[in-house]
Amino acid sequence: MGKEKLIPVLAMIVLLIGIFSAIYVHATMINKETITIQGKEYTIDQVFSITQTKTIETDEGKKTGVALDDFIKKIGFGCAPCHNYVFKAGDGYQQTISWDLMQKGVLTENRKIYFPDTAHALWVHDIVEIEVK
Amino acid sequence: MNKMKLFVGIIVFGTLWGFSECIIGSSSADTGLPTGAIMTGFFALTFLVMSRMFYRQPGMQLGMGIIAGGLRLFNPFVGCHICSALAIMAEGAIFELVWYKLSFDFKELKNLTMQTSMGILTAYLVFVSGYIVTQILTPVIAGSGFYLENLIVFMPRILSSGLLPALVGGFMLPIILLAKNLDINISLKDRYYYPVAVGISTFCWVFVIGNWFLLSP
């Protein structure tokens, strides 16, 4: 196939990939107000009632929320430092966070996690699940 | 082409690309505009295609990516500077690969269908590859480690996010290629070319680094 046919065909293919991916993302989007942790549902109020809040300084200012390490210890997973924690957002985005980082982070009332001095890519928004690995 | 002239061209076009990423990209990020689509489909595509049009040298866009990424390291506004810088460098490399088989006089892009298709293809692949590089490098550099399953589950989102840059690129490339008709001659006299190129590059670097010193926390 010559370039004059190949390039328009490839352009159509990438457009179709983009369109079908957008449809898939929209169809699989999870909209809920609770956070699933190892099969159990927690409302954000429950999360805040379990543990104390702390404030951290980020490059976007101060963020106040539940201390992630304290929260994980309080809900009881045995050896908390032995695990990694996968924070999953409603749109499919997820990040695996090590215990070292968990000790610095907070979970805010609008279900976002923040860490000081880290890339914003680790700040998962709209959290719907925390998986313990 | 004179190697010094090409080297200065890489610096000035790479600097303009990096400057647009640092200053325009950062300032438009808070406006709610689709910054990624604008930066790739409009600015990156414009600088990459124009430099290829004017200089007609292989490897130039890869060099521009390195310069633009280097400048991006000095931008204080986004968390992972290194990741963004490497993503820009990857974008320059992907552009080189996508355009590798095309002639430097763009004779294949003589009709609107080809121009639009190439704009769509280039912007999509450049944007998506930059996005993937960022997703891989950010957790590594942040110390959290890269997990393939995190990337795989997020791939549909990444692939869908390339749609808007692709549409912008498809619209922009025919417009950028109109510059061919202007018959802009890069072989300006050396006494004008070098001072203008060095002046533009110096201004952009001083502006971005000055911004870093003034605004970084």
The greatest interface between two protein chains, and residues involved on each side, is:
A-B, 34 and 39 residues
Helix content of chain B: over 70%
Number of distinct helices of chain A? 4
Mean pLDDT of chain A: 90
Overall outline of chain B:
globular
CATH class of the largest domain in chain A: Alpha Beta
**What share of residues of chain A is helical?**
25-40%
How many distinct beta strands of chain A? 9
Low-confidence stretches of chain B: none
How big a fraction of the residues of chain A is strand?
25-35%
In the CATH hierarchy, the architecture of the largest domain in chain A is Alpha-Beta Complex
Spans of chain A of at least 5 consecutive residues whose pLDDT stays below 50 are none
Assigned CATH superfamily of the largest domain in chain A: Oxidoreductase, molybdopterin-binding domain
Distance between the termini of chain B: 44 Å
Descriptors:
heterodimer, A: 133 residues, alpha+beta, Sulfite Oxidase, Chain A, domain 2, 2 domains, five-stranded mixed sheet, four-stranded antiparallel sheet, 4 helices, 9 strands, 34% helix, elongated, B: 217 residues, mainly alpha, Arp2/3 complex 21 kDa subunit ARPC3, 8 helices
Short description:
The complex is a heterodimer of chains A (133) and B (217). Chain A is of the alpha+beta class.
Explain what you see.
The complex is a heterodimer of chains A (133) and B (217). In chain A, a hairpin with a 2-residue loop joins strand 1 and strand 2. Chain A is built from 4 helices and 9 strands; from the N terminus they run αββαββαββαβββ. The model of chain A has no long low-confidence stretch (mean pLDDT 90). Chain A has a 5-stranded mixed beta sheet. Chain A has helices at residues 3-28, 44-50, 68-75, 99-102; strands at residues 34-37, 40-43, 53-58, 61-67, 85-89, 94-97, 106-107, 113-114, 127-132. Chain A is elongated, with a radius of gyration of 19 Å. Chain A folds into 2 domains: 1-30; 34-132, Sulfite Oxidase, Chain A, domain 2, CATH 3.90.420. Helix content of chain A is 34%, strand content 30%. Chain A is an alpha+beta fold and 133 residues long. Chain B is mainly alpha-helical. Chain B is built from 8 helices and no strands. Chain B has helices spanning 3-29, 35-55, 60-72, 81-98, 112-142, 148-161, 163-177, 190-215. The termini of chain B are far apart. The model of chain B has no long low-confidence stretch (mean pLDDT 86).
